[in-house]
Amino acid sequence: MKLVKKFIEGLYLKKSLKRFKPVIKALDEFFFGTDKVTYISLRSPHILDNIDIKRYMFTVIIALMPSVLAAIYLYGLRVILVIFVSYLVGGMVEVISAIFRKKEIQEGFLVTGLIFPLLLPPTIPLWMVGVGIFFGVFIGKEIFGGTGRNIFNPALVGRLFITISFPQALTTSWAEPLRGGLAGFLRYKSDALTSATPLISFKSGHTLTNISELLMGLSSGSIGETFRLGVILGGLFLLYTRVANWRIPLAYLSSVFILSFLGNVFFPDKFAPPLFQLFSGGLLLGAFFMATDPVTSPFSELGKWIFGFGCGLLTVLIRTFSGYVEGVMFSIIIMNGFSPLIDQSILNFRYRYLKR
Amino acid sequence: MLKYKTFKGGYRFRNFLGQPREQLKELPIPQRVIIPLKQGFGGEVKPLVSPGDKVYAGQIIGRDDENVSSPVHSSVNGEVLKIEKINYFKQEITAIFIEAEPTAEWRPLEGYSADWGKLSPEKIEELIYLSGSASLDKEGIPTRFRSSIISPSEVENLIIHGIGSEIYNLSLRLLLSGKNLFHFIEGIRILKKIFPQAEVHLALNKNFKKLVEEISKITSGFDWLKIYALEPKYPQGYDEMLVPTLLGRPFPYGYSAANIGIVILNTQAVLHVYEAVCEGKPLIERTIALCGEGFRENLHLKVKIGTPLKEIFSPYLRKDKEMRLVLNSLLTGIRLNIFSLPLSRTFSQVIALPENREREFLSFLRLGMRSESYTRTFLSALLRGKKKLNTNIHGEPRPCISCGYCQEVCPVRIIPHLLYRFIERNIIDERLSKYGIFNCLECNLCSFVCPSKLPLAKTIKDGQERLITIGCDRAKCILPYFDLKGLEEYRGIK
After folding, report:
1. How confident is the model at residue B492 (pLDDT cuts 50, 70, 90)?
2. Which residue among A24, A292, A329, B271 has its CA within the 20 to 30 Å range from the CA of B247?
3. Which residue on chain B is closest to A343 by alpha carbon?
4. Contact B451/A34, CB-based, under 8 Å?
5. Which of B90, B391, B465, B478 to mutate to test the interface with A (most CBs of A within 10 A)?
6. Is B354 touching A (CB cutoff 8 A)?
7. Chain B residues whose beta carbon lies within 8 Å of the beta carbon of residue A30
8. Beta-carbon count within 10 A of B247 CB
C-alpha cells in the first residue's frame, strides 16, 4: 500500500509525464479514496452516501462475473484475450480523449469494455474487437462529450457497427460450447463450429431448443449471453443493489412474453413461443445490463415503462418479420434514440397545468 | 383510532452507532449563562433588565408586546453582568450575560394550577405565552399575545408529532417515560381547550408499537383526537411532509403551516406546555440528546437554557480525533464551532461526527459492513450491522449519469438532476418554476444520495435565487393556489 502511494507520488512529480496527469490522477483515485470532507454550509448535508461512481460501475462488473466465468468455461481461454483487447483499445480511447479534454478519466468504460466482448460471437477475430470498441467508445460516447452525455449505449454502437461492416463474421459462424471436466478453463478455444444459434434454427426449420439447454449455456450464441442462469442471477443482483432500475427489465421482458404469446396463439408458424423467446438470443443480457443503462434510458418512471415496452415490441417484431434473427441490439439502440423525446413528452404532460 | 400513513419518496435511515441511550442526566448549574433575546419562533425582544440587576430563575428578562415574539427568561438565580450583541448563528442578537448563583430554585408563574380544568382558556393562553413555550417549533403556538403569525381562532388543525425521522433523534421513549406520558396527554388536552375548534392529530413513530398502543388505549375516550402511526422516513418530521401525509392537503412550500391554519408541535413542546400550565414552570430547561460516535457517552442531558456549549460538551466529547459538532440534523443542521455560544430553546440533539480526511486504500472495493448507503451495494444492506458515519465525501465528483436516486428519494417529487442540468447550463427561465423548483424543502436528501457527489440541493437553492432576480417569484407559483393567513406578519419575521 505504501509502495503504491510512493510510486504514484513519484509519477506526479515527473515533469515528462505532465501531459498524462489525468491518467496518474485516475490511478491515484483508483487506489486511494478521497480526503475531501463535506462542505460546512447550510445547504449541504454533513454526511454523504458511501456510494461513488467507481463502486457503482464495479457493481455492474460483479454482476457480469457469472457470465464472464461461464464464457471462459464454454468458449476457452481466448475469451480472456477478447476482453483484454476490448479493455486495452477502449481504455486507450478514454485516456486519449481525457488528455485532450483535460478532464479526469471516467469509470464508465470499465463497464462498456466488459459488456462489449460479451456481445460478440466466440469466433470473432481480435482486430475486429478492437475496431468495434474503438468505434463504440469514440463515436458512441466521446464525441457526444463523454460519460453522462451519450445518447446511445456505446457497447451497442460498437456491436452495431461491426455487425453491419462485417456481416459474415458476425452472423454466420458460431462456436459449439465446450463441456465436460474443466472444459474451457484448460483450452484456448472451441474448434467445433456451427452455423445455427437457437434463434436461427427456429427461423430456418422451426426447431425449438430445450429451455434447460438455453439456461445452462449448452446452445451456441454470443460469448456472454448463453449461460442465461448466470445472466439472470447477475441481473437480479443488479436490481437488488438498486444500480439498475427494476422497471425497465420488468417492462421489457414481460412485453416480450405477452406479445410473443399473443403472436404465437394467432400465427404459430411465424412467432416463436414466449418462453423460448425469453430465453434465447441476447434478450436477458440486453434487458438486465444494456437497456438499464441510466444514461441512455429515460429518467422518468413512466418513461421507463414506455421504454421497456418499446424495446419488447421492437424485439419481437424484428425477430419475427425482419431478415435479422436477433432484434435486441436494434430495439435498444432505437429506443435509446427515443428516450429524450419520451422524457420530454412526459414532463410536458406531468406539468401541463402549471404553465405560466 | 389508529391509522398507518406514509408518503412517496424519502429515505429511512436505520441502525447507526451512537444513538442516545434512554438515560437522563441533569447538568450542574453553570457559573455563567448567556441568554439570547431571540429564541425559537418570533422576533428579538427588548431587555427588561440592566447590568447589575439581581434576577431570579424564571424571571422574564426580555419581552416585546408589539411584535410577534415570546418572553425570554433568566434560567438561573444571579446578577446581570452585561448586555451586548453577539453573533449567534449568523444573526446579530442581543444577549444578556448573567453570573449565576449555585441555587436550583425557580419561581413559578402566577396563577398556575395542577387542576388545569378550573383555569379559563384565557388564563391558560397567558400561562403558555408567559412561559415562553409559545415560541417553540417552526411557527409557535398562537395566543392572543401575538406569539404566532395567526390568532388562536384561526387554528383549524393541530398536529403533534414524535416521529424521529432524523438519523439521530431524541428518544421518544425517554421523553414519555413514567409520569411524562400522562403529562403529555394532559398537555394535548390543554391545547385542545385553547383551540376548541381545531382538529387534533397525533403522529407517532410506528416502530414504537408498545407506546403507540398505550397512548391509543389511554386516549380511546377522546373522539376529537386522531392517532397515526407513521413510518420514520426522513423527512417525515418536516411540517411540509406532515401536512400532506396526515391531512391530504397541499402545503404552501416556502411558507409556514400556520399560513394555512395548522399548528405543528413536537413532543417536547407539549411537555413544556403542561409544565407551564400545571406546574407554572417557565421554559428555562431543555432536554437534549448527545448523539454520534464523537461523544464518550451517548445519553440525554437536562440543561439550563443559556449554558455555554463548552460546559455541556467538554465532559463528554472525545478528544482523540477531530470532531464536527452539528445541531439537530446531520443533513440540514448548523455546525457548532464556537463553544462560547449558549444553548437556546431550539436545541434538541447535538451530534458529534468524526472529521475523516483519511484516504482509504481501495475504498470502492471494501465490503462495507458499517457503511451507510441508499444503494444496497454494501454488505451493511444484508447484515444490518450498526453503521458508522463520518464527514468524508466518499468519492470523486463526476458528471451526472441520471441514475435517478435523487428523483426517487425526493419527498416533494421534483427531479433534482433535471433542475441541476438546467441551472448548470445557465438556463434560468420559468421552466424551472414549472418543474417545481420552489417546492424544494431543502431537506438535502438529493445531495446525500448522489453517487456523483454533485451539490444538487445547493444548486437548486442557487437556481431559486437567480430565478427571483429575473422576476419569477415563489409567490407566483404558490399564492394563487392557497388562501394564506397572517402573510404580513410572516414577511415581517423572515
Report:
1. low
2. B271
3. B418
4. no
5. B391
6. no
7. 362
8. 18
In a domain, A356, yes or no: no
Q: What is the pLDDT of residues A331-349, one digit of tens each?
A: 999 999 999 999 999 998 8
Instruction: Look at residues A334, A304, A328, A332 and name the one whose alpha carbon lies nearest to residue A316.
Output: A328
Are A244 and A315 members of one domain? yes
Closest Cα in chain B to A354: B434
pLDDT at A355: 46
Residues in B closer than 8 angstroms to A242, CB to CB, are 374-377, 405
**A109 and A91 fall within a common domain:** yes
Say if residue A175 is in the same domain as residue A265: yes
- Cα–Cα distance, B205 to B201 (Å, whole number): 13
- The whole-number pLDDT of residue A11 equals 80
Give the count of beta carbons closer than 10 Å to the beta carbon of residue B91: 11
Are A118 and A28 found together in one domain?
no
Q: Cα angle at B263 between B259 and B267, to 5 degrees?
A: 150
Least Cα separation, residue B462 to chain A (angstroms): 10
Partner-chain contact A33 B364, CB within 8 Å: yes
- The interface predicted TM-score (ipTM) is 0.90
Q: How far away is chain A from the Cα of B405, in angstroms, using its nearest Cα?
A: 9
* Residue of chain B whose Cα is closest to the Cα of A107: B398
With CB atoms and an 8 Å threshold, state whether B404 touches A294.
yes
Contacts of B330 in chain A (CB under 8 A): 45-47
- B395–A52: do the CB atoms touch at under 8 Å? yes
A120 and A22 in a single domain? The answer is no
Whether residue A156 lies inside any domain: the answer is yes
State which residues of chain A have pLDDT below 70. Answer: 42, 353-356
- β-strand pairing of B225-230 with B199-205: parallel
How far CA A246 is from CA of A6, A64, A215, A239, in Å, comes to 43, 17, 21, 6
A242–B375 C-beta distance less than 8 A: yes
What mean pLDDT comes out for the span B92-107? 92
- Lowest-pLDDT range, A212-226, B42-56, B227-241, B478-492? B478-492
Q: Are strands B285-291 and B300-304 parallel, antiparallel or unpaired?
A: antiparallel
Question: CB distance from B415 to chain A under 8 Å?
Answer: yes
Inter-chain touch B447–A32, beta carbons under 8 Å: no
Determine the Cα–Cα distance for residues A59 and A73; give it in Å rounded to an integer.
22
Range of the structural domain that residue A13 is part of: 1-48
The stretch B253-276 carries a mean pLDDT of: 92
pLDDT tens-digit readout, B346-373: 999 999 999 988 888 888 888 888 899 9
Query: How many structural domains is chain A composed of?
Result: 2
**Residue A353 maps to a domain:** no
CA of A318 to nearest chain B CA: how many angstroms apart? 29
Distance CA A57, CA A60 (A): 5
- CATH 3.40.50.2000 is held by the domain B31-100: no
Rounded CA-CA distance A147/A150 in Å is 6
A135, A16: one domain: no
Question: What is the reported pLDDT for A119?
Answer: 93
User: B223: Cβ–Cβ under 8 A, 6 or more apart, which residues?
Assistant: none
**CATH among 1.25.40.10, 1.10.10.10, 1.10.1060.10, 1.20.1270.10 for B397-484:** 1.10.1060.10
Whole-number pLDDT of residue B418: 94
Torsion angle of alpha carbons B246, B249, B253, B259, nearest 10°? -100
A-chain CB neighbours of B356 within 8 Å are 37
- CA B87 to chain A, closest CA, distance in angstroms equals 16
- List, in sequence order, every residue forming a beta bridge with B387; answer none if it has no partner: B16
Is B333 at the interface with chain A, CB within 8 A? yes
Q: In chain B, what are the domain boundaries?
A: 1-30+109-355, 31-100, 359-389, 397-484
